[in-house]
Design goal:
The chain is an alpha/beta fold. It has one domain. The protein is built from 6 helices and 9 strands, in the order H-E-H-H-E-E-H-E-E-H-E-E-E-H-E. It has helices at 3-11, 22-26, 41-56, 91-98, 128-139, 188-196; strands at 18-19, 59-74, 85-86, 113-117, 120-127, 143-145, 152-158, 173-175, 198-214. A 5-stranded mixed sheet has the order 3-7-5-4-8. Strands 1-9-2-6 form a 4-stranded mixed sheet. A hairpin with a 2-residue loop joins strand 4 and strand 5.
Amino acid sequence: MPLRTIIRVTYGVPDDRVVAPEWVVSERYDIQAKAAGDPSRAVMWEMVKSLLADRFHAVIANETREAEIYSLVRVDPDKLGARLRRSKVDCAAIGEAAQHGVAPPPSDRVLCGGKQAAGHIEAGGMPMVATAGALSQIVGRPVVDATGLDGEWDYDLDYTPPQPPIAAAATPPSADARPASPPDAPSIFTALQEQLGLRLNAARGQVEMVVVRNIDHPTSD
């Protein structure tokens, strides 16, 4: 796995908000680590940060920088899009149970997180801030959630990927075997408006970036 992926998952940001040397993106590593006891997910992420500091001498900081962004807003403040639904699943409880080996309830769609194929996103129990992060990978610039929609949401989105396609990876969509979107699917901008009742407005804004100030190739075992 590229170190950038580990960093962006650990710090909870999309790839485009990680500023790092080129080799952090191109080189891949296998990392095996085991925590004692039964730490929470938040504690585990702190352990990963310590691992990066100990083995890669990583010095990582949050910085606010001005950048070209998109602001994700509602088309109509009083109306949701036809495919956007408030989730009825308690994802926090499911996540907590999973840490103790309890499987999630059966479902014919994703409950908490997302699945993605070319031109399709299926989301379940996804906060809008996570949706903004997923969209940033598709449109190629940071997307800031300004919808005012709190809580977690379910939706299905079909769109024609930009050309050349930009791989979308979100905290949380992942690769899926589902067929690609229909050949007549609209652009991501039109799909958001027609299917979810959301719009991307171009703007400049302050963006929280994760900046890798120092990182070395790993020390030996």
